[in-house]
Amino acid sequence: MPEPSAAVLERRIDTLKRQIVALGRLRPGTLSQQYNVCGNPTCRCKADPPQRHGPYYQLSYTWRRKSRTHFVRAEDFPQIQREVANYERLRALVGQWIDAALEIARLERQARHYPQEKSDGKSRRARKPKRRGR
Ligand SMILES: [Zn+2]
Description:
The chain has 134 residues and is α+β, with helices and mostly antiparallel strands.
C-alpha cells in the first residue's frame, strides 16, 4: 500500500475532528461491579452457597491527579457506560490525529530535503538517488 500523502492525512484529520465534535458526554474512568456481604449473621449473604448483595456498580477514575471512586446506581449504569466509552473513543481519535500530524511533519521534512520529489509517496522507492551537480 502506498503511503498516504499529506493531503490524504489532512483529510483524515478533518474527519477525526468531525468525529470528535460528534461525541456525546464524556467521562473518564473504569466501571466495575461488585457483590457485597453485610453485617447480619443470618442474612442470605452468609448462606451456603452465599447469595451476596449486588451487583453494585462503581466508577473509578483519576483526573488532575485526584483519584476517586463512587457508586453508580443501576439505572444510571448504561448512560455512564456510554460516557466512559465516549471518553475512550476521544482518546483513540486524538491519538490518530497526532499520528497523522507527525506523519505530515515527516513528509514535509522529507520534501525540504528532496524538493524535487512530490510528496504523494507513490514512486518514492523507484526514484533515483539525488545527484549532486558539480
Ligand atoms: Zn447480607
